[in-house]
Design goal:
This protein is α/β, with parallel strands linked by helices. The chain contains 18 helices and 19 strands. The strands form four sheets. Strands 1, 2, 10, 11, 12, 13 and 19 form a seven-stranded mixed beta sheet that branches. Helix 1 links the parallel strand 1 and strand 2. The chain is globular and about 65 Å long. The two termini are 36 Å apart.
Length: 494
């Protein structure tokens, strides 16, 4: 193969976006992906003609003038078939047997929450004002970082989210309800940085959207643009080892023995996988590799993708977050309860125009990698009866939980397809199949918030394992990574 300006390893969202940015700026770029399909957690699959998603379900802040809209306009992703969720109830929180509906717009959201908690009108107003400042200040906040300010100096990253909520709001029920969409992040009373909690919640209050036809369309659109700009993408090509020459990375070797040369390299893989690929170089010494390998990864997800019988379950243009626990910040209870006590229910957008009935539903709940670790080393589709039985029982319990809140669900099921953190680990090379990558710790920012730079002078990281996760977070991070190579971020973005 020819020598490239930039070699990108991993075709998840961050890798594809970096390749898009750099190829658009005239760099000769290639992308290496170990799987047959691109996209990482954006991958979709079809069963009986219906499209189902893996890790992608909805996005926030896509209306005109909002942060994700600005980013997706740059990536030419606004023309995809986006569908706006119910602005008066984009999320439904079921907590202690009561329903709470989140609505779009900061003032509307504050008014709705005040209806539920009239004694806390002032506290809610101040909290929502804070979310608005975070949400619309995202570009100015990170522009400082691109000019040399260390993100670990940011007070909102160093502030404990739960302590902030406890101090500002006080009431436990109010705190739990406002944290009710928690499965978009990992709640941890001792660790979660306030900025991550605020930024994610704020973006969805701005606006909330699903994508008709599956998240794979994002990956396909980016890939088509990369090729149009002259970039190359190679699937079924697993990068296994970095090669050092003259004080930098000169090439990457693949599992089939190919040597692919480049001037710069970007890894969208988990940092632990990345540094272990460089174990034979002088850059990643054992003490550094041990540090990266010992970073705590968040929990994974168990997913039941449910194909429904025709005309059985009404489509709901909202997500339902179910919590059968009094304290959703008690992370151990989420993972180790015999029965699922929390779940996200996400409806696939019907293919029929104005479809009244749902065609498929995804149910997700947290799952500890330890529950499936014994099957590590087995291949997808051949993990054995014990693994299949584990998934079957988990799915039944999760369906029983969701069926309490979705009319007709049990009778409407046609077929169920399941995945575990082990599935995610195999498809995305994410350590332990962690849904949100490395767990961020407000007490140890220097260790858990990673920058794009690595000890190798021309190897950079991107993706959810750095400072921010989610579609918005990864999209931001891709620009920071590319700026390490080009020295610039497009002016229309920041």
């Amino acid at each position: 193969m020819a020598k490239y300006d930039v070699v990108v390893i991993g075709a998840g969202l961050g890798g594809l976006q970096c390749a898009y940015i750099l190829s658009k700026q005239g760099k000769k770029v290639c992308v290496l992906e170990q799987n047959r399909l691109l996209g990482g957690c954006l991958q979709s699959f079809k069963r009986k003609g219906k499209t189902m998603d893996t890790g992608f379900h909805y996005v926030g802040g896509l209306d005109k003038g909002q942060p994700l809209n600005r980013l997706f306009d740059y990536f030419d992703l606004l023309n995809l078939p986006w569908q706006k969720l119910d602005s008066q109830a984009f999320d439904q929180i079921v907590y202690n047997g009561k329903n709470y509906f989140f609505c779009n717009g900061y003032d509307n959201f504050a008014n709705r929450m005040t209806e539920y908690f009239p004694k806390y009108k002032k506290e809610i107003a101040e909290y929502v004002k804070f979310l608005e400042e975070v949400g619309y200040g995202i570009f100015s906040r990170f522009k400082k970082n691109t000019t040399g300010t260390n993100i670990t100096d940011d007070v909102l990253f160093a502030t404990n989210a739960y302590s902030f909520l406890k101090e500002k709001l006080g009431d436990d029920t109010l705190i739990n309800v406002l944290s009710g969409t928690s499965l978009k992040m990992q709640l941890n009373k001792a660790k979660l940085p306030l900025y991550i909690f605020a930024q994610i919640n704020s973006s969805f209050i701005q606006s909330a959207w699903r994508l008709k036809g599956g998240g794979m369309q994002i990956a396909d659109s980016l890939a088509n643009s990369i090729k149009k700009f002259g970039g190359e993408i190679f699937t079924n090509t697993k990068a296994t080892k970095f090669i050092e020459q003259n004080g930098k990375i000169s090439a990457v070797e693949t599992s089939n023995g190919q040597i692919i040369e480049g001037n710069d390299f970007i890894s969208n893989l988990h940092p632990a996988v990345t540094v272990n690929m460089g174990a034979e170089t002088s850059f990643f010494r054992k003490i550094y590799r041990t540090r990266i390998n010992n970073l705590q990864n968040g929990f994974g997800m168990f997913t039941a993708n449910i194909l429904l019988k025709p005309n059985k379950v009404n489509y709901q243009n909202r997500n339902i977050y179910i919590h059968e626990t009094s304290d959703i910040w008690q992370e151990p209870n989420l993972l180790h309860s015999e029965n699922p006590i929390c779940a996200l229910t996400s409806f696939g957008v019907p293919q029929k125009e104005q479809g009244q009935y749902a065609e498929n539903i995804d149910l997700l709940c947290p799952m500890d990698y330890a529950d499936v670790e014994k099957f590590n080393g087995t291949k997808i589709g051949s993990r054995g009866n014990e693994y299949e039985e584990l998934k079957k029982q988990k799915a039944e319990k999760l369906i029983n939980l969701a069926a309490k809140y979705i009319d007709g669900l049990k009778d409407g099921i046609d077929s169920v397809y399941t995945s575990t953190p082990l599935t995610y680990a195999d498809y995305t090379a994410t350590k332990n199949g962690a849904a949100y990558g490395i767990e961020k710790d407000c007490n140890k920012l220097m260790y858990t918030l990673l920058t794009p730079k690595t000890p190798a002078p021309n190897l950079y990281l991107t993706g959810q394992n750095l400072s921010l996760h989610g579609i918005l977070g990864v999209s931001m991070t891709s620009f920071f990574t590319c700026a390490e190579i080009t020295g610039i971020i497009p002016e229309n973005i920041f």
